[in-house]
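Task card 7
Instruction: Convert sequence to structure tokens.
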Amino acid sequence: MAAKRSTAKDMSVLQPGADRTTVVRELGYPVLSVTLDTGGLRDTYHIDRDAHTAAAKWAAVIWHFVADVLTLTLWELVGTPLEASAKDRLVPYTVFYGTDGKLIRVQIGS
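Output:
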């Protein structure tokens, strides 16, 4: 389960004036993209607010593996519920772009 957790994103790309291509390169494709009446775009992302770095994520994977081996898989009784409780906590980010594809503003939350 630890290997399937989200990896932290560089949220510093969400600055006014940033190109949409730069944002998509870092955050991935949005879950929803809508063309506005003004000609601009509104992209919605669901981002894990508690995501860890790739190194921290893989350290957890290695820890679970080693604990499984050393306890002859008894660690699963503790580790599985622990990982299940640490699931992704997704927060909606709505990003608004002008007709030129430049970021105008970001709305966090519902």
